[in-house]
């Protein structure tokens, strides 16, 4: 499947900004089933310095700095890529690793992959393990249950027990509150799931990306289209990282486009940095358009 | 060699013999530690004999005199540590009279060990910020690094030009009871102490020049020269003449003295984060001549605070965008960002295995036994042996102190264990090794104190080279714990003995406190701004004090002061200092009993404009640019501090009996300061700006004084009294009397104070000087037609003064009984002068606001 994603970010400032330095995670990366065909970034006003790179997690980064006074900053990213479908049913049927086996393996890791997976088992800046999170997930991830099955159940649990409601949270809402109020947006659900998984000893990471905007004929449009989306993946021995989308109760396949992954949102913030002078009231507008290419 | 009997024999603790030497009476035999200076038979070790004998020969008075000399030199050099933000009470660096002496045999063990260790740490940096093989194969449990707060993922794949990433390294060593050296810690992100070692050497070699020469002590200055050479070569890809700067967290960081000292010694400008800016993918220094490219940053700011754009956004010390410049290879940062991770004490546990894996070698110098609480077996050991261990947080933080197990009672032990068990992966435990004993002087007595040595290495072509010396520290606490930070301990010069005689050429290097390169060229504009303000505050303080002195003299004079004169003089004091309303709205009671307000004008430093507030502000500016001040200037500033303390004491119980005298010594110090500037400062831009500050301020103060004193017309003899007070306070009364005999007309006074170009305190003299100085300032903007605005203002002021008709100015408007022309001319001049300072400041000083983080609010809430 081929897609074209256009992601436009617009910052509007109350007073002119004289200087800015920004690190962007806006260029989708390659994954085991996703390949970037071409990319184009346009920034206005034009940056005096720009540099593409790769971060610690292997995500594509785009760094730029602007030295002319501006009240409006527009970052327009266009990328084309191809996604190959995965036979998820086979994964679900063939992988029999249980939660208990994974936990035991992590305690005495014998392979480099297992050791490195521990990075996603630990607290990160926006996700802390806790007893409350553990209590919410513990029964689902019992020792004898196959890992993928448990994760599917858990994804379904969040999908059914939480209400999608953008008015109830911000980027700063703590997980405990999300858990209590049982509502939030895709980023909250992803963070919540990761926090729960880590609390029960399952390595989990955060994925940011997009969803196909126009559904195929006869299918319903998925929530989170026309905007950035977020979900999570867990570490499954033999298979590697397997993705789940609790906002839509699915295992992402060829309709989910991955931009970047990390321990949490803070590792893959779409745009971070500082501005000098001006600023004042900052306003942010994001528009995303995902099209299927023929 | 000296005799080995009698005074040189250290008695054992239980020796009750009356013949024992008073000097060494309290020098006990260490029970469970190695003794650096004495053998087990209490005879001095051969390499200590000469030093101990010489110290002995000094006698009690001689030793105390030498100790005082050490303290005096340190104070004059401005050697401080842990400076509180109070400019009046810096704590002086402590240095013991007796050096720590290390034989060449012992030294070669240390040298070999440190070289190997630094090379290994460089490889660890490369691996953890690169392929992470150490984690993949389990040499280091991955969760240690992944959960470590100093592991900065943003620094992944960061490289430094040249062979090494780790360009310098400091290692703390102690000698165990068997005399073997062990490493107890590493400093990698901002390894400090080398500058203090240099200062210690400079002081001790001055106090004991002959002893120093006779002992063939290895010189350490070449290490600094080599270090400078090493930094200069790293930028060869783009320049052969790199600009190297020292990035300081600021004048109130605890080791600012060392940073300034080292910067001066090597000839590097000392800059703060806000002095630098990232433009066009490179780092630049904001200087008076515009932006100047920076190629190497020797940083004293910790990792996470170096770049607000990618690291801690709340940092006040960083340079936004710096990390990306380093990533792109357009600046060298020593040490590279992220190197704080290597300081973690947890690495010591795994170091033998790491060395085996990365180099196939065994460690030449062992590290102190270390346990990681994140390992269940280690945690059990820690729980059972907590009394014998030091508990350290896994990441070094100023606010997180080590816990010494042997100082804890039963309850505290339990609490500590509980704390560790909550987050075991964040704690490390180490064996407690008290360190070898060495002799120190304490109140003229020789005492034994546990000693620790910090060694320093730097990257070199064939590996690492080691400073032949180091920073020795001794603990002065009663419980013999080694303090691992620099505070609360006393330091020692460290003598590494050479087996070969040293050439004199090298020897002379150590003595000189080099200012070998003109640091003046291309100063950061912040430095110049501080000098400008230092000049202004000094002048402000001086003129207020002069007026107050005159006021006290007049009020306490033989003849009682008429009430009108008294009121006006007091009002002048309020207007001159700007401590308003003060006496300007005073009732008769306040005029009769002015003491309370006068005391406040002098010593209330919370009141802007008071004498003390101005002096504080001046000292603060001086602290900010300490590295620019000459040794003589520092002496005067120290005196000034002492005088301020005296002032406080004199005023504790109200006005002193002769208040005018209380200000004399302060005025004299300020005069000495400005005299020194004139006589010994190079005429660089720093001097010019300080002078512009002084001259502008003196003009402003003089105009203020004339306006306050002479606007109101008084009858004789009050008018004469006021005029004479003004003349007296600006030291012009004698000239005035000589010139005009007894004719004390206001117009004559104005002649002397306004338009007499030969009077260095006249208005015209100040403005004429300003006219000359601004010709020398750099013109970095596009040349516009005609004069610059600041130039125009100065010339206008000059002309206004020259064209003033003194008879008209001095004339009294009979309806208001005031000199309206005088008032309006002075007001106009004051406005022009204030405007002038604004123009200078806008043009030459930096006014960039700090960075603010890009808002992320509402991101993705639309999902």
Automatic annotation (TrEMBL), chain A:
Record keyword Transferase present: yes
Residues covered by the Transglutaminase-like domain: 178-248
Pfam families for the chain: Bact_transglu_N, Transglut_core
PANTHER family on file: BLR2979 PROTEIN (PTHR33490:SF7), BLR5614 PROTEIN-RELATED (PTHR33490)
Enzyme class: transferase
Keywords: Acyltransferase, Transferase
One function term, GO molecular function aspect: protein-glutamine gamma-glutamyltransferase activity
Entry-linked InterPro entries: Bac_transglu_N (IPR013589), Papain-like_cys_pep_sf (IPR038765), Transglutaminase-like (IPR002931)
Identification of the protein by name: Protein-glutamine gamma-glutamyltransferase
Record organism: Marinomonas spartinae
Automatic annotation (TrEMBL), chain B:
Gene3D superfamilies: 3.30.1490.270, 3.40.50.11290
Coiled-coil ranges (or none): none
Ranges of residues in domain Circularly permuted ATP-grasp type: 99-475
Location of region: Disordered: 1-31
Residue ranges of every copy of the DUF403 domain listed in the record: 523-845
Transmembrane stretches, start-end: none
Compositional bias annotation for Polar residues: 14-31
Protein name as catalogued: Uncharacterized protein
Organism: Marinomonas spartinae
């Amino acid at each position: 499947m081929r897609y074209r994603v256009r992601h436009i970010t617009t910052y509007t400032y109350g007073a002119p900004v004289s200087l800015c330095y920004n690190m962007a995670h806006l260029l989708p990366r390659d994954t085991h089933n996703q390949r970037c065909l071409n990319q184009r970034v346009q920034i206005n006003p034009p940056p005096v310095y720009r540099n593409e790179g790769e971060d610690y997690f292997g995500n594509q980064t785009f760094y730029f700095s602007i030295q002319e006074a501006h009240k409006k900053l527009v970052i327009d990213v266009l990328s084309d890529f191809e996604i190959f479908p995965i036979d998820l049913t086979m994964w679900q049927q063939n992988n029999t690793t249980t939660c208990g086996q994974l936990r035991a393996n992590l305690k005495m890791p014998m392979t480099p992959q297992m050791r490195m997976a521990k990075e996603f088992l630990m607290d990160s800046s926006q996700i802390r393990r806790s007893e409350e999170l553990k209590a919410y997930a513990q029964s689902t991830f019992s020792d004898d249950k196959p890992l993928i099955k448990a994760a599917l159940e858990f994804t379904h649990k969040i999908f059914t027990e939480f209400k999608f409601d953008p008015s109830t949270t911000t980027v700063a809402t703590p997980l405990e509150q999300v858990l209590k109020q049982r509502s939030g947006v895709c980023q909250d659900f992803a963070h919540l799931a990761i926090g729960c998984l880590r609390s029960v000893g399952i390595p989990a990471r955060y994925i940011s990306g997009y969803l196909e905007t126009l559904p195929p004929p006869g299918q319903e449009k998925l929530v989170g289209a026309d905007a950035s989306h977020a979900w999570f993946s867990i570490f499954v021995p033999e298979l590697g990282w397997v993705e789940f989308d609790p906002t839509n109760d699915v295992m992402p396949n060829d309709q989910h486009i991955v931009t970047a992954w990390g321990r949490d949102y803070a590792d893959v913030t779409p745009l971070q940095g500082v501005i000098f002078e001006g600023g004042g009231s900052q306003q942010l507008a994001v528009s995303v358009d995902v099209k299927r290419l023929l | 060699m000296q005799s080995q009997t009698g005074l040189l024999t250290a008695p054992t603790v239980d020796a009750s013999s009356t013949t024992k030497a008073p000097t060494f009476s309290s020098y006990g035999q260490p029970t469970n530690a190695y003794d650096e200076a004495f053998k087990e038979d209490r005879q001095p070790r051969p390499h200590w004999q000469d030093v101990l004998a010489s110290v002995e020969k000094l006698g009690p008075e001689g030793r105390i005199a030498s100790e005082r000399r050490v303290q005096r030199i340190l104070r004059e050099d401005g050697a401080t540590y842990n400076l509180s933000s109070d400019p009046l009470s810096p704590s002086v660096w402590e240095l013991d009279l007796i050096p720590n002496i290390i034989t060449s045999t012992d030294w070669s063990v240390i040298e070999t060990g440190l070289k190997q260790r630094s090379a290994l740490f460089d490889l660890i940096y490369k691996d953890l910020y690169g392929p992470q093989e150490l984690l993949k194969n389990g040499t280091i449990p991955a969760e240690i690094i992944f959960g470590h707060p100093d592991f900065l993922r943003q620094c992944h794949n960061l490289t430094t030009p040249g062979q090494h990433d780790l360009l310098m390294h400091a290692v703390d060593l102690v000698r165990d009871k068997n005399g073997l050296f062990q490493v107890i810690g590493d400093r990698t992100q901002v390894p400090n102490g080398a500058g203090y070692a240099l200062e210690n050497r400079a002081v001790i070699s001055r106090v004991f020049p002959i002893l120093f020469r006779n002992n063939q002590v290895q010189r350490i200055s070449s290490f600094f020269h080599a270090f400078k050479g090493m930094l200069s070569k790293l930028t060869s890809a783009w320049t052969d003449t790199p600009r190297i700067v020292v990035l300081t967290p600021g004048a109130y960081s605890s080791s600012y003295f060392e940073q300034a000292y080292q910067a001066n010694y090597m000839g590097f400008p000392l800059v703060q984060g806000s002095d630098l800016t990232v433009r066009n993918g490179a780092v630049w220094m904001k200087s008076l001549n515009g932006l100047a490219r920076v190629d190497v940053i020797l940083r004293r700011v910790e990792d996470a605070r170096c770049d607000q754009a990618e690291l801690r956004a709340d940092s006040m010390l960083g340079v936004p965008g710096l990390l990306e410049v380093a990533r792109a290879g357009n600046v060298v940062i020593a040490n590279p960002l992220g190197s704080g991770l290597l300081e973690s004490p947890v690495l010591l546990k795994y170091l033998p295995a790491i060395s085996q894996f990365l180099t196939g070698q065994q460690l030449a110098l062992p590290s102190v036994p270390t346990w990681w609480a994140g390992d269940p077996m280690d945690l059990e050991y820690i729980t059972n042996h907590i009394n014998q261990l030091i508990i350290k947080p896994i990441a070094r933080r100023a606010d997180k102190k080590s816990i010494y197990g042997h100082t804890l009672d039963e309850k505290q032990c339990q609490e500590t264990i509980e704390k560790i068990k909550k987050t075991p992966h964040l704690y490390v435990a180490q064996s407690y090794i008290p360190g070898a004993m060495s002799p120190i002087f304490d109140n003229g007595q020789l005492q034994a104190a546990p000693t620790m040595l910090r060694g320093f290495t730097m990257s070199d072509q064939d590996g690492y080279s080691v400073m032949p010396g180091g920073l020795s520290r001794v603990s002065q606490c009663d419980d013999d714990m080694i303090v691992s930070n620099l505070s609360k301990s006393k330091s020692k010069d460290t003598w590494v003995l050479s087996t070969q005689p040293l050439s004199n050429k090298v020897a002379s290097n150590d003595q000189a406190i080099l200012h070998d390169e003109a640091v003046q060229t291309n100063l950061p504009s912040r430095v110049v701004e501080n000098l400008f303000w230092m000049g202004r505050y000094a002048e402000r303080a001086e003129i207020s004090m002069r007026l107050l002195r005159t006021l006290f003299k007049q009020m306490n004079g033989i003849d009682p002061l008429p009430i009108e004169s008294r009121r006006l003089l007091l009002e002048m004091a309020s207007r001159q200092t700007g401590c308003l309303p003060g006496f300007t709205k005073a009732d008769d009671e306040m005029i009769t009993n002015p003491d309370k307000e006068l005391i406040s004008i002098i010593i209330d430093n919370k009141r802007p404009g008071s004498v003390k507030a101005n002096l504080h502000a001046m000292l603060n500016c001086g602290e900010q640019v300490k590295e620019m001040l000459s040794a003589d200037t520092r002496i005067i500033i120290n005196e000034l501090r002492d005088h301020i303390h005296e002032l406080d004491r004199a005023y504790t119980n109200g006005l002193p009996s002769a208040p005018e005298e209380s200000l004399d010594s302060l005025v004299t110090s300020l005069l000495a300061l400005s005299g020194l500037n004139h006589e010994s400062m190079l005429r660089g831009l720093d001097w010019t700006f300080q002078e512009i500050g002084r001259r502008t301020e003196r003009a402003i103060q003089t105009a203020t004084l004339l306006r306050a004193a002479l606007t109101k017309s008084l009858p004789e003899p009050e008018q004469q009294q006021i005029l004479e007070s003004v003349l007296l306070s600006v030291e012009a009364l004698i000239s005035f009397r000589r010139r005009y005999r007894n004719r004390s007309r206001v117009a004559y006074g104005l002649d002397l104070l306004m338009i007499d170009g030969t009077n260095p305190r006249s208005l015209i003299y100040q403005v004429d000087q300003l006219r000359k100085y601004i010709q020398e300032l750099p013109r970095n903007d596009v040349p516009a037609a005609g004069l610059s605005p600041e130039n125009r203002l100065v010339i206008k002021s000059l002309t206004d003064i020259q064209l003033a008709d003194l008879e008209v100015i001095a004339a009294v408007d009979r309806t208001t009984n005031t000199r309206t022309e005088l008032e309006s001319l002075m007001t106009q001049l004051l406005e022009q002068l204030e405007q002038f300072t604004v123009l200078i400041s806008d043009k030459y000083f930096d006014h960039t606001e700090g960075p603010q983080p890009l808002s992320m609010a509402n991101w993705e809430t639309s999902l």
